[in-house]
Each structure stands twice: as C-alpha cells, then as structure tokens.
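Hi, here's the filled form for the chain we discussed.

Project: internal
Contact: R.S.
Residues: 253
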Amino acid sequence: MDWEKLLSLELYHFLFVFARLGGAFLFMPFYASVYIPNRVRLLFALTLAVMLTPVLSGQMPPPPGNVPELFRLLLIEITAGVFLGLFPFFIMTAIDLAGVNAAMATSFSNATLLDPQTNVQSTVLTGFLTLCALLVIVTTDLYQILLGSVLASYDLFPVGQSLLTGDMMRSLAKTLSAAFTYGFQIGSPFIIMIILIYSSMGVMSRLMPQLNIIFIVMPLQVYLGLALLMVSLPMIMWWFSDFFRNTILHFAL
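And the returned structure, exactly as it came back:
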C-alpha cells in the first residue's frame, strides 16, 4: 500500500472516531460545560481522536464505495455519540431536581442564574449543586469512566452496523425515570422540611389570624433551609456520585 492510500485510510478512520467523540462531547457532563470554551473542547476532541485512531483502526469497516454511504455511516456514528452524551446528561437531572427542592425549601426559587450544565436559567441552589456535582466528577475521576464508556461503545455499537434505536430510546427513558426517582430521594429532606413548615404555618394562622405568619416564618425558613443544605450536602454528593458511577459502569465495562 502506497503512502497516499495509507494516509487516506487513516483520515477515514480519524473521521469516524471524531464523529462519535464529537457527538458525545455535545452533551456529556464536564466536557460540555459552558465554562470550557468551544475551541478548547474542539481541540481536545481532535487530539483525543488522533490518539485513539491507531487503537480503533482494527474495528473500522472498509471505506464505502460512494458518498451517500459515507454520510450514512457518519450519521450512525454521530447518533451513537449523542446517545453516549445524553445518557450521563440525563443522570444529571437527579441533582437538578434536588436543587429545585432545596430552592423551594429556602425560598430561593426566584433567584436564578445560568446553569453551567444545561446552559439555561435555573435557581441559584440548582447551579450550586450542579457545580458541586461537576467538581465531584473531576475529583473522583468519574470523567475517566465517561471516556471509558465511549471506548467500550465500539463493542456495543460496532462501526458500520445499524443502531438498535428502540433499545436506545428505552434505555434513555429508563435512565431519566431512575434519575427523577433518585432526585426525589436525594431531595427528600427538603420536601419533608417544606411539609413541616407550611403545616406549621397553617396551624399558626388558624390559631392567631391577626398575626402575619409569613413575615415571621420566612427568615426562619431561609435559615433552616440553608442549615439543612449545609448538613446534607456531603451526603447528597456521595449519593449522587454513587448513583452516577453505578449507572455509567454499565457502558464502561
């Protein structure tokens, strides 16, 4: 094989590796954070694709004979990458739901800022918990498991073969349902606090109608909510990291 054919074959393999990596990095936590500039993410994806191309060349199909077939194969790779990015992205909804419950408990529901993960406006406590979750992902090396899931996906989704879209959609739906359930479990202390505070406010308003209960209970609700967040934050992050790791390992092994 001459150098021209060898170079074109390597570029063909690089294109397929970059298509899957690029699709995954569009939604994957930490790698898709708005705090990382787009050029840095693109450069990292290109560098990683260059490093992985020699390793994954043996799993690449032969070059297609026409351009439409090439685009079809690239679309399959991009779809597989987006699925690998959406899977951990849906897991992050657990921490988002816990942040919403915490904001309701502390009366900070109207205080919003830009969420670094979803790139939309969210409550302050949701953004705070999301930043803590991203910090946990980095410090506990969970970002390496995310990359491992991309590498392991070449055994689950071989290059050039049609995707099992039905199974993929069911997997995403199941993951999103589990994340919502786990989010309610993580935020259950704040839900209990809300029930107790508003029940007490109802009883006090019945016993003393002339007393303005809101002005009395509101500062107490803020202090109690922040105190509960300070006490429960380590346990919330531990529960989340355990849930994140156990869910991702199904793809990373």
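Let me know if anything looks off before we file it.
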